[in-house]
Write a structure and sequence with these properties.
By secondary structure, the protein is α/β, with parallel strands linked by helices. The protein folds into 2 domains: about 250 residues, FAD/NAD(P)-binding domain (3-Layer(bba) Sandwich); about 150 residues, Elongation Factor Tu (Ef-tu), domain 3. The chain contains 14 helices and 16 strands. The protein has a 6-stranded antiparallel sheet with strand order 10-11-12-13-9-14. A 5-stranded parallel sheet has the order 6-2-1-7-16, sandwiched between helices. β4 and β5 form a beta hairpin. α1 packs parallel to α11, α2 packs parallel to α11 and α2 runs parallel beside α14. The chain starts with 7 loop residues before the first strand and ends with a helix. The mean pLDDT is about 90.
């Protein structure tokens, strides 16, 4: 039964945020019209026609509840997150991370949304959300098109909402066929865990000479150039590996090729190390962790085959760069992420200025929660900044220069340490205290709302 009488919500985009928002509202008895354009045509970054596609990697990051990403997942689960539910159902081994079989996960999300009695899925490209809201007789509209916003909708947003500076660039890592790897040159080990313990990551170690030769080729390799009207704007936490190489010959060795905690069987630590993570539960494919790239396809094959064990590697998917879109939320949106210009229009997900799969889904959950309150005649409610979701919203609503961010402890208020605590590992202790506080604050906040 629809709790809201005639209330209907139009959701534009069936990515992580749109899928999360749609299911949250439908489970609360609200009718949803879900518009998605993938059924008509895939864009260059998309590979499969189903919803909530994980474009860049198959990892939703840490599950550890004392980590920032783990905190966010804990809060989302408490709110009934559909995305976390599907991710856990189709998880693949990834140590402390929540990684999924991409296709099975996406199929699950699509099936559930398409078969929910209160969700009407329409294959259509959106243009003007306000006119579409009227056309489908909806009371509210949530734009959750994230990094894959289509040209028609982007033009409307530029014209009626944001003005210029409405984009950044993201990059995708390649995926290799597991049967084409030389396992005699590689070894299984999770970072900081002993050799012999069951491990989810496959490691390709490099000595000093191999590493610097590899970096030199990354720098020299041909890249896909930006168009004349484009300007590369990458997330600092998702830089192409070739851009890292250009920044300095040791940059990658302190980032995606960091050898710390990856000792080999003889106890020696490699000079650098490439990690590969299972792409699916069968382990028939691996993705190169942190190896987003701008290299041309031909150069990717040539250069990445320099990695030990990958000399004859066959690539299932090659990496690429694609344009993403995000708003200046502080300037254009209220704290509940509704448009200041159009009060019935909300934005959710990565388009609001958050980075990452879980972060995008959490903003879909957050917006749907706020829309439900309006449907019920209640005022928006601010999430405490001490919580992961509250910290994310606070960040995008207060940052002076829009810079997309994922969840991290730097977004949450710090804590004061006692003299005794300062004698220990201060960084570790601070994180533990911030995490414990976040869990307590969210639990109290959430229980008061129910």
């Amino acid at each position: 039964m629809n709790i809201s009488g005639a209330s209907r919500v139009l959701v534009i985009g069936a990515g992580l945020a749109g899928s999360e928002a749609s299911m949250f509202l439908a489970r609360k008895g609200v009718e949803v019209v879900l518009l998605e354009t993938k059924g008509l045509k895939l864009n260059p970054a998309q590979k499969i026609p189903t919803f909530a596609e994980l474009v860049c990697t198959n990892s939703l990051k840490s599950k550890d509840p004392t980590s920032a990403h783990g905190l966010l997942k804990t809060e989302m689960k408490a709110m009934g997150s559909f995305i976390i539910e599907c991710a856990e159902k189709h998880a693949v081994p990834a140590g402390d991370a929540l990684a999924v079989d991409r296709e099975n996960f996406s199929n699950e999300v699509s099936h559930c949304l398409r078969h929910h009695p209160l969700i009407q899925v329409i294959d259509r490209e959106a243009h003007d959300p306000i006119s579409l809201k009227a056309e489908y007789n909806c009371d509210f509209v949530i734009v959750a098109t994230g990094p894959l916003t289509t040209k028609a909708l982007e033009e409307w947003i530029l014209k009626d909402i944001s003005g210029d500076d409405f984009y950044f660039y993201d990059a995708i890592a390649p995926v290799v066929d597991a049967d084409t790897l030389d396992y005699t040159k590689m070894y299984f080990k999770d970072r900081h865990k002993p050799i012999g313990v069951s491990a989810d990551y496959l490691n390709a170690p490099m000595n000093k000479e191999q590493y610097y030769a590899f970096i030199e080729e990354l720098v020299k390799a041909e890249k896909v150039p930006p168009k004349e009207f484009e300007d590369w704007k990458f997330f600092e936490s998702c830089l192409p590996v070739d851009l890292m190489a250009e920044r300095g010959k040791d940059t990658a060795r302190f980032s995606c090729m960091k050898p710390i905690g990856l000792e080999q069987a003889d106890g020696r630590e490699p000079w650098a190390c490439v990690q590969l993570r299972k792409e699916n539960l069968l382990g028939s494919a691996y993705n190169l962790v942190g190896f987003q790239t701008r290299l041309t396809y031909k150069e990717q094959v040539r250069v990445f085959r320099m990695i030990p064990g990958m000399e004859e590697a066959s690539f299932i998917h090659l990496g690429s760069c694609h344009r993403n879109s995000f708003l200046n939320a502080r300037k254009l949106l209220d704290a509940d992420l509704r448009s200041k210009k159009f009060p019935e229009l909300y934005f959710a997900g990565q388009i609001t200025g958050v980075e990452g799969y879980t972060e995008s889904a959490s903003m879909g959950l957050y917006v749907a929660f706020q829309v439900l309150r309006r449907i019920k005649g209640e005022e928006p409610v601010a999430f405490p900044v001490e919580t992961a979701m509250g910290a994310l919203v606070n960040y995008i609503m207060t940052i002076q220069k829009p810079t997309p961010s994922n969840i991290n402890f730097g977004l949450l208020p710090s804590v004061e340490l006692t003299k005794e605590q300062r004698r220990g590992d201060r960084k570790k202790i601070k994180k533990q205290l911030v995490a414990a506080r976040a869990q307590d604050v969210f639990q109290n906040f959430h229980s008061e709302l129910r």
